[in-house]
Amino acid sequence: MNGAAKQAGFTLIELLIVVSIVAFLASLLFSRVLFYQEMAEKASMQQVVGALQSALVLQMGHRMAAGTGAELNNLVYENPMDWLAQKPGNYAGEFNRVQANIAVSGQWMFDKSRHELIYLPDHAEYLQPATDGNKWIRFHTRFVYGNSAGGKNMREFAGAIVSPVEPYRWLIREDK
Q1: CB environment 41-80: b (16+ within 10 A), e (fewer)
Q2: How far apart are CA 97 and CA 110, in angstroms?
Q3: Mean per-residue pLDDT for 51-75?
Q4: pTM for the full model?
Q5: What is the CA radius of gyration of the chain?
Q6: What is d(CA 172, CA 31) in angstroms, rounded to the nearest whole number?
């Protein structure tokens, strides 16, 4: 009877081992969840930039077809979000001067003074800061020129793109 009573429950050591294993597995799961949240945010940001690039091409085509090609230069001053049929849900609007310390993370903003579209990531732990020290990514519309076949110093209009103001680096380990 004494032997049966001793085998009825767990010992403290067995319980500690089980709790340790569960805690270890939970920490592994948590780190994976953070990794996938960061990857999803990065993909979402790149999807918005791709939609803006497509909208830019449509704007250029529309203005050229309407005979208002002279207005192409205005594209670099316009808010690219205005070209979209539907703005992203995390678009905060236009501001005269966007400051990183008052901006809300995970949102897009347009800085009217600099004519820049700014994205402030929600998960900026692994984003290398910009040269101004802020953990945000700034985009602008710019024209692209190529060398003309007719002359050495002639440059030919090749198109327009929505591109980062400065290169950014998201320090996410891709091998996870």
Answers
A1: bbebbeebbebbbebbeebbeebeeeeeeeeeeebeeebb
A2: 9
A3: 88
A4: 0.77
A5: 26
A6: 12
